[in-house]
């Protein structure tokens, strides 16, 4: 087996085991968090928290976008295996995804747009992937395309010459950042507009790439008319940049993508745990709960893409795969079982490196974001199993 920086060797996940774990995560999130909007049939939203605050609770648009992405993952696995994700006879994951997209629009005031361009970029990406699934399954696509058209128009409005390029984060137009620019670049590249995507990548490289750490900073804020760098580094910012670099695919992009994978391994891992049997575990750092509860799952999604890309050197692909596999194994090992009157559900930790004492406790509140993060990571690991 090939060795990796820091010791250890790449282990190909067991296909049946990895897919089974992703199925279990899908079942857990759909059963525990999925609910109808105001009890209306054929609707679906993810509750922000369990126990649920109900209709009066907060509305997290971008969490729903990642719920949609996870359902699309499960839907493609259903198509490949010709097997329902939970083994039952209810709606397929793809059908649930279509219901979710429709319900997001209803819950969002009968529109797909909001005040945050990064939110809209995430929903555009998820809608684009749902459209691909619908095409493969020969299902209706008009709603997916309508969402994409409306969201693309908003993303184009956010891309201005201010600060040299990039996308504004919100309609306040005082902050251009990686969270908005990177997913927009990926969406454009996947839509065939690689020229525009390349210009966004060039802006990110010029303004927000830190060569020493080989990672991307958060953004540039306008304060009293002057640019002020926001140097924070988050896991999720690296993921869509990595995917966009691969999608645009210029020689410099591919070199930067390889550097980025190494930068993630050098700067965004948990403290290494070394055992005699397994060597060093490459478990990704996480960012707690709330919005941060999604961050590392997003990175895992796109690291898996890098691991499957024949555009990258073998050692880079193996390193990316190892980070996904080890992080997924951590989430799985940290799961707890929550019992209800007639059923039970898995609950995943927000930290894949948590000790047994850090596992979720029964009957305590748990947020959708952290559960989606674990589900995304387990889906990512399943794609590496073939």
Give an overview in words:
- By secondary structure, the protein is mainly α.
- It is built from twelve helices and 13 strands.
- It has helices spanning 15-33, 61-81, 93-107, 117-137, 142-158, 178-190, 194-207, 235-248, 251-267, 295-307, 314-333, 368-384; strands spanning 34-35, 45-46, 49-50, 175-177, 209-210, 215-216, 219-223, 226-230, 274-275, 279-280, 336-339, 344-347, 366-367.
- The strands form six sheets. A three-stranded antiparallel β-sheet has the order 4-7-8.
- Helix 2 (61-81) runs parallel beside helix 12 (368-384), helix 6 runs antiparallel to helix 7 and helix 11 crosses helix 12 (368-384).
- The longest helix has 21 residues, at 61-81.
- The two termini are 18 Å apart.
| Oligomeric state of this protein | single chain
What is the H-and-E element order?
A: HEEEHHHHEHHEEEEHHEEHHEEEH
> What is the average per-residue confidence, as pLDDT, rounded to a whole number?
91
Rg computed from alpha carbons, rounded to a whole number of angstroms: 20 Å
Distance between the termini: 18 Å
Adjacency order of strands in the biggest sheet = 4-7-8
| Major sheet details | 3 strands, antiparallel
Bulk shape: globular
Strand-pairing-aware structural class: mainly alpha
How much helix is in the residues?
40-55%
Low-confidence stretches: 1-13
Report the portion of residues in β strands. 5-15%
Say how many strands there are. 13
Q: What is the number of helical segments per DSSP (H or I, 4+ residues)?
A: 12
């Amino acid at each position: 087996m090939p060795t990796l920086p820091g010791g250890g060797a790449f282990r190909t996940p067991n296909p049946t085991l990895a897919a089974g774990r992703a199925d279990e995560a899908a079942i857990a999130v759909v059963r525990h968090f999925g609910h109808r909007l105001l009890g209306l049939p054929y609707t679906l939203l993810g509750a922000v928290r369990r126990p649920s605050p109900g209709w009066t609770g907060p509305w997290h648009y971008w969490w729903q976008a990642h719920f949609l992405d996870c359902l699309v993952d499960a839907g493609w696995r259903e198509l490949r295996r010709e097997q329902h994700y939970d083994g039952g006879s209810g709606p397929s994951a793809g059908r649930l995804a279509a219901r979710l997209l429709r319900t997001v629009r209803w819950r969002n005031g009968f529109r797909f747009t909001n005040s945050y361009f990064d939110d809209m970029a995430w929903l555009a990406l998820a809608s684009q992937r749902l459209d691909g699934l619908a095409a493969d399954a020969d299902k209706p696509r008009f709603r997916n395309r309508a969402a994409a058209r409306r969201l693309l128009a908003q993303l184009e409005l956010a891309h201005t010459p201010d600060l040299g390029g990039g996308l504004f984060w919100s309609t306040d137009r005082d902050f251009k950042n990686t969270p908005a620019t990177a997913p927009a670049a990926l969406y454009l590249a996947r839509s065939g507009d690689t020229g525009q995507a390349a210009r966004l990548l060039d802006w990110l490289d010029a303004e927000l790439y830190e060569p020493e750490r080989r990672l991307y900073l958060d953004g540039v804020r306008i304060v009293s008319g002057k640019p002020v760098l926001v140097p924070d580094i988050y896991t999720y910012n690296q993921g869509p940049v990595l995917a966009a670099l691969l999608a645009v695919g210029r020689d410099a992009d591919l070199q930067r993508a390889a550097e980025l994978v190494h930068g993630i391994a050098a700067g965004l891992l948990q403290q290494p745990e070394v055992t005699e049997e397994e060597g060093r575990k490459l478990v990704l750092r996480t960012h707690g709960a709330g919005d941060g509860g999604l961050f590392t799952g997003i990175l895992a999604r796109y690291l898996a893409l890098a691991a499957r890309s024949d555009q990258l050197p073998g050692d880079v692909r193996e390193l990316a795969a190892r980070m996904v596999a080890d992080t997924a194994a951590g989430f799985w090992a940290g799961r707890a079982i929550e019992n209800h009157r007639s059923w039970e559900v898995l609950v995943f930790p927000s930290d894949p490196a948590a000790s047994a004492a850090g596992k979720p406790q029964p009957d305590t509140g748990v947020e959708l974001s952290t559960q989606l993060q674990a589900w995304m990571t387990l889906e990512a690991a399943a794609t590496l199993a073939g």
